[in-house]
Design goal:
The chain has helices spanning 37-54, 97-103, 139-155, 174-181, 203-206, 216-224, 254-262, and strands spanning 29-33, 76-82, 88-95, 112-113, 124-132, 160-168, 196-197, 227-228, 233-235, 240-248. It is α+β, with helices and mostly antiparallel strands. The protein has one domain (18-262): Gcn5-related N-acetyltransferase (GNAT) (Aminopeptidase, 3-Layer(aba) Sandwich), CATH 3.40.630.30.
Length: 264
């Protein structure tokens, strides 16, 4: 698990050598791990604001206007704050393998059959609930979140990162179908890493052959070296089409990440 003695860190590229490390300074933002209940609540409030208020997700939560589920207590919460206001404006949650084992599954198990990935689970971290406040959706914030994830993976010697990447279905799912059908074949995971959706999106029927509008987060994952592990699932609570993403750390495009962070 994460070293609890450090409450925050300057986002650097831990996989680069010391000379090449790139600290983010003079930015509007800082990235840290949530270390107090109020930090976690701020992240959960942001998630509710984005997922429920903005995107219309149906969330079953025990605290009003906060997105909370039973995975949260077992996760690390990565948060980005705006320095001038100290408000949490970006977040990821991180479920390490030991915690997933205690719970009995990953969140992604609720959407996909992960049988072919079970042998990776001792070295596999799940990320999810990624969101950024609508006033701060820029390269700087996502770069900080990715640098934080890279730091976490490297520090703890984990080899695989998985998570569900969502595509909105306000158009009835046509763009989501187009995104999947127009993926570069090189972006699809080898068959031994395929996962199978529990509620399959009927992408063949929904595709309308229009150019796909790929969400920036999915574009970024693919540029980092991630694979898509097969067909999309439909998440009725969030009304999204979800792609299961698998990023072996050995495939991570560190040059792209260094460039992304440097230019944040």
């Amino acid at each position: 698990m994460l070293d609890k003695s450090s409450s925050s860190f300057t986002a650097t590229l831990p996989f680069a050598n010391a000379k090449a490390d790139t600290s983010i300074t003079g930015s509007r933002y800082r990235v840290s791990y949530a270390r107090t209940p109020s930090d976690v609540l701020a992240a959960q409030r942001l998630r509710y604001k984005v997922f429920a208020e903005e995107l219309g997700a149906h969330l079953d939560t025990r605290v009003a206007e906060h997105d909370i589920d039973h995975y949260d207590a077992s996760c690390e919460h990565l948060i980005v704050r705006e320095i001038c206001s100290d408000k949490v404006i970006g977040t990821y949650r991180i479920l390490p393998p030991a915690a997933a084992k205690r719970i009995g599954n990953y969140y992604s198990d609720n959407e996909f059959f992960l049988n072919r990935l079970h042998h990776l689970s001792p070295r596999m971290v799940e990320v999810g609930r990624s969101c950024i406040h609508q006033d701060h959706r820029n390269g700087a914030v996502i770069a900080l979140l990715w640098a934080g994830l890279a730091e976490y993976m490297t520090r703890n010697n984990y080899d695989y990162l998985i998570g569900c990447a969502s595509i909105g279905m306000a158009d009835g799912g046509h763009n989501a179908a187009n995104v999947f059908q127009q993926l570069d074949p090189a972006a699809i995971a080898p068959i031994e890493y395929h996962a199978f959706p529990q509620h399959r999106l009927p992408h063949e029927a929904l595709s309308n052959d229009q150019p796909a509008l790929v969400p920036p987060l999915i574009k970024g994952y693919l540029r980092l070296g991630a694979w898509v592990c097969g067909e999309p699932a439909w998440d009725p609570d969030f009304n999204t089409a979800d792609l299961l993403i698998l990023l072996p750390m050995a495939r991570m495009n560190t040059r792209y990440l260094r460039h992304f962070v440097k230019n944040a």
